[in-house]
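Illustration 12: NAD(P)/FAD-dependent oxidoreductase.
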Amino acid sequence: MDDTYDVVVIGAGPGGEVLADRIVRAGLTAAVVEAEAVGGECSYWACVPSKALLRPGAALESARSVAGAREAVTGALDPAAVLARRDRFTARGDDSGQADWLRGAGITLVRGHGRLAGERRVAVTTAAGGLRTLSARRAVVLSPGTEAARPSVPGLDGIGAWTSREATAAEAVPARLVVIGGGVVACEMATAWASLGSAVTLLVRDQALLNGWEPCAAEEVARGLTGLGVTIRFGVSATRAARDARTRAVTVETDDGAALVCDEVLLAVGRRPRTADLGLDSVGLPAGSWLPVDDTCRVTSLDGDWLYAVGDVNRRAPLTHMAKYQARTCAAAIAERAAGRRPDTGRWQPWNAHADGVAAAQAVFTRPEIARVGLTERAARDAGMAVRAVEYRIDDVAGAALHADGYRGHAKLVIDESRRVVVGCTFTGPAATELIHTATVAVVGEVPIERLWHAVPAFPTVSEVWLRLFEAYGL
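Figure caption equivalent — predicted structure in token form:
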């Protein structure tokens, strides 16, 4: 068997799949090494199952928000049907369909745990315990993703605490759920399980949810969670946890002296790179580290043009769609170098992943939904920009009032006054996640606001908020 390829990829998540496909399309050969399921975290334990769990509650709320429709709605969500629908999307972890797609695209799939074994070499330990070594003529690309971080709390390791994987794959609704954390995973999972009937308590170390978001978004999410019956305890940390061997109930003690009894505990305190056993030490890099890269996704802490990293592991924009974006640009850069050309630094070249630093859109499917792109007002000011922030209540837009009775939403633009362009945008409200791409185009394209003024939104749509924002700005 010839185990030499132009490119060897470790990790068959969204980034790894897209990169290998682009490499083959460029006329090169590629092998992808995967120890778990082809499709990665997103397909089975993150984006796809979480949205499958969240959508039924949002759909039910949407129907109930319109007079004439709400009268036709009776009863609550059917948890069994919701979980069954989720399982259809995740195929219960069966990756045969995605593995077949890889092979059909002309990509070699190697099952097993891959580790670097020196320059341009990858050692694969197969499930049967065998060893297979792959060589790369052009490049090795690391796309191992991340895993849930675990807080150092006595007893947590012994209670079978959930991470995002268990939270999105659970087979039954816990009667009582304690969530440790206040970020995106914590808020989305609290929303999903509360919608399905769990009594959810959030333990948030900080004084607000969603650190790094605009305060208006964090406040709307907190209000929405409270409306779903979620108890949010700010400024509180867990200090100890124990599971009763007889009742199976878990007691979580906190630093304010409380003792919370629940059925499951979800840890949602961040992510860490899956690089502890990636063989980084074989090429002089520290095990367990993040992998900083340049705009072609080449690992900058190593000499040469042969090692790349795409997706969450490079810590630039830990989002599935940005992993795919990085994969496309990285593949283009590898192909350029393979052809003997040096990718130039032109900002709009296909091998230059600059947008992940300035326009990484993020959608959060809480109730209400929130979405953002670019910089928050605080981040823009911290960067030294002369900015002006403009805000508008989406409730006052005619299209929003028609969309839902009692529609509640907020819009905020951050405008760089020196260039007269939008550098950041945040939306909250029903279907806010569907509004954000327009803002993404404005931020990436650096479209002058005087020109955006002539992009007239259709009436009566929620998008008419753009007109109101520019009127508030003074146009």
